Amino acid sequence: YIEDCYLPEMALRVALDQIAQAYAGAEQCTRFAICKSYREIVDARKRGKIALLITMEGVEPLGTDLDLLRIFYELGLRIVGLTHARRNAAGSGGVFAASGSSRDGLTGFGRDLVRACEALGVIVDLAHINPAGFEEIIALTSKPIIVSHTNARKYYDIERNISDEQIKMVGEKHGVIGVNAVLVSPRKEEATLDRYVDHIEHIARLIGIDAVGIGFDFFEFIYRQWPESAQQELAAKFTKPHFLPDLTNHSHARNLTHKLIERGFSDEEIEKILYRNCLRIFKELL
To answer: What pLDDT, in 10s, does the model give residues 222-276?
Structure first.
């Protein structure tokens, strides 16, 4: 992801710097491994390492140069989400409101990019894309897709999240939807672990347990370091985040496991939600 202040001229340089820093960090820490294939993921897990995939959230670093996708692929890029909340050369992001997103679908570059991702072996991520772009990507793709971090509009009705119809589209593609731990409810009192599981249950009821996973999107540790002015800017630009007290970082994942057991999910279903469904996607596409 590239911050607004670096656009447009610095987007490519910043993205390359981010990848360089990721590799440097992985080399310095024995717990992580940057992986480029399903086989490498499996090998990392066997060695007790945490497997990392390089992803791009918003294709601003590409500009309108499709050849750069191949360069990033060689550097390890394996998942691409076309947009964040803003518009770029590929399409438009969904707004953090019940309506108001651009009604335009993908641009010509965006359509070419989706086709190139499928041909190259880069997973297409529909998180953040506006509804029109979402439908167009579904129509263009022939392989499973993911929505890495989102929530059901049934419980939080903003176009940044996805509707029942969109959920069903992902199911028809045999894709996986990762449930976000930030946009669980517009009301602080309902931003709970139980409501998080409500999102999981809703998606599973619509398209099956094989199509739902986790996409925590943790950033409270960053948010709490910001000055109040930056927090207010985020609320004005997007929305005010309501963090779940018992699901704010990866060490809290066990709390989700306990809650899933409490809510009646079987061991097999819990394994699918926590990792097996995503591993299926990686096995099929990487």
So the answer is: 999 999 999 999 999 999 999 999 999 999 999 999 999 999 999 999 999 999 9
Say how many domains are in the chain.
2
Mean pLDDT of 31-60: 97
Domain boundary among 143, 178, 201: 143
Q: Range of 73's domain?
A: 1-143
In the chain, the largest separation of any two C-alpha atoms, in whole Å, equals: 51
SS (H, E, C) 89-155: CCCCECCCCCCCCCCCCCCHHHHHHHHHHHHHCCEEECCCECHHHHHHHHHHCCCCCEEEEECECCC
DSSP category for residue 49: P
Helices and strands, number each (H, E), in the chain = 12, 8
Alpha carbons 102 and 104: distance in angstroms, whole number: 5
Q: List residues bridging with 176 in a β-sheet.
A: 146
Q: Is the model's pTM score more than 0.85?
A: yes
